What we know:
Layout: H1 9-17, H2 19-24, E1 34-41, H3 48-61, E2 65-72, H4 74-86, E3 93-96, H5 99-107, H6 115-121, H7 128-133, E4 135-136, E5 139-140, E6 142-149, E7 151-155, H8 156-161, H9 171-183, E8 187-189, H10 197-221, H11 229-243, H12 256-265, E9 269-274, H13 278-285, E10 296-299, E11 314-323, H14 329-338, H15 341-349, H16 368-379, E12 383-385, H17 387-390, H18 393-408, H19 413-428
Parallel strand pairs: 1-2, 1-3, 8-9, 11-12
Antiparallel strand pairs: 3-11, 4-5, 6-11, 7-9, 7-10
Amino acid sequence: MNMRKGIIGIAVILMIATVMISCSGKKKADDGKVTINFWHLDSNDLHYPEWEKLAAKFTELHPNVDIKITVLENEAYKSKLATVMQSGNPPDIFRSWGGGVMNSYAESGLLKDITKEYKSNWDSKIGEGAVGVYSYKGKVYGLPYTMGGVGIWYNKDLLAKVGYTSPPETWNDFLDCVQKLKAAGITPIALGEGDKWPGHFWWVYLAVRLGGKEAFDKATIGNGSFNDEPFVKAGELLQQLIALKPFQEGFLGATYGGDQAALMGNGKAAMELMGQWAPAVEIGSSESKKGIGDKLGFMPFPAVEGGKGKLTDLMGGGDGLVIGKNAPKEAIEFLKFITNIENQKFLTAGPLGIVPTAIGAETALTDPNLIAINKAVSTAGYFQLYYDQYLPPATGEVVKDATQGLFAGTMGPKEVAAAIAESYQAEKK
């Protein structure tokens, strides 16, 4: 989940410059103060104060604690985090999407096992499925504070202009809608492919619709591979969409927060494929700081005729926080604080607009689109974590690079599938 723009302001640049020091410094000062280094990512000006408020509330209750917050955008965050992880000095508490990347950190001994604390005295109950994303080999290393799914966010007024008073449910109808929007002079789809990860959502979802859980399980733990038909066919169907030229001019170099979300938030594009954070980022990226309001709708990714996947199968994930290996016990208390029902409701009702994970906090949801996502998560028979996070780190990067090749026209469907298959097999050895 996102959120993702340029490096945030002079203060953040200074924090980045001192990152190695802040991660490896003493946890306890001479005055008895305990410092918690907290890293998260965002590109929305409306979101920063929410984290600062939570940190301030926590330090009021724990006056011996000082929380130092570092904010980065998505790609800068990943790069800086990789650097400090290689140094063996992780932040005390930091953003993670779970899955293969987190698992690799756990395998390397860079994370703190919080299983005992979670099972014995956590303030709020979080669903087993959500906890599982932040677990590895039976041990809990972090927890999500939001969990949701990716789908197509659309401008109701723009779709209505071309005769779609309800959103298309099948891939063929979706392509028809795209063609009609383009003919009407409306940008059908906003895409920030310069960031790579937004584009890989399209390929992954088509693979989910074509092959379902069976194809993915065969490719990762069975006798199949990413060279199998559903993954090649996913590239072929995505080529159908790309051939229609549905994206805004310059999409290959565009960013998510600065371009994709802004186009949607300003009413300049009809659709985007994005996660549960989309409305909040659209608002923050819009000129009015209001987005398009109740004109915004949410629909599941379209069904593909003949595919083994179901319309209820969901790709998504959460935004969560994990604990670094050298973190003081107060960092675990801070995670407990963030995930309690009271603060989950605070984050749900505020500008972040999260889909909360603490059982009972969902009562704070008022946005019908987020309520729909919460229902989709709870009813999904197959829930697929984003490939760039679920798969081993190197393979996740290959997925993004290869699918970008499809968008750029430099790689074909078979080449994309083969590159991913080769990388995955190499990492399995």
